[in-house]
Amino acid sequence: xxxxxxxxxxxxxIPGDIVHADERLxxxxxxxxxxxxxxxxxxxxxxxTLNDLTAGDTDLVGEMVHLASRIAADRGHAxxxxxTVFNCNAAAGQTVFHIHLHLLAGRxxxxxxx
Length: 114
Ligand code: 5GP
Ligand code: ZN
Known about the structure:
Layout: H1 5-10, E1 18-21, E2 25-29, E3 37-43, H2 58-74, E4 82-85, H3 89-92, E5 101-105
Antiparallel strand pairs: 1-2, 2-3, 3-5, 4-5
The structure holds guanosine-5'-monophosphate and zinc ion (ZN).
Zinc ion binds at residues 1, 4, 6-7, 46, 98.
């Protein structure tokens, strides 16, 4: 999608700290990290919000979660633990309208989130 920041990062039209890239997914460091590890996992295909998922996207979303777990494990966070978050629309604080899974790790988290 022409005006989408994360589509542009996936297409390498604007720089990103890319930590993983494959046919369907990209993962890159968050520009404003909220934990020692803060990685965003996105599909290459533009999907604005979780509300726009279809039944055909279930494998894609599963791949996103699986990639988050692999990055967490590669960075040594598996045993201590980590958090994964999808924000959807304004009430949850979504600011970039291309779905992304936050992977946060490397510090203790509180619950409930704000
Ligand atoms: P949201 O609030 O939509 O769930 O998360 C959007 C995330 O994207 C935020 O954590 C924000 O710091 C991150 N972000 C916004 N602009 C950029 C950017 O240009 N590059 C990167 N790497 N992350 C960004
Ligand atoms: Zn996009």
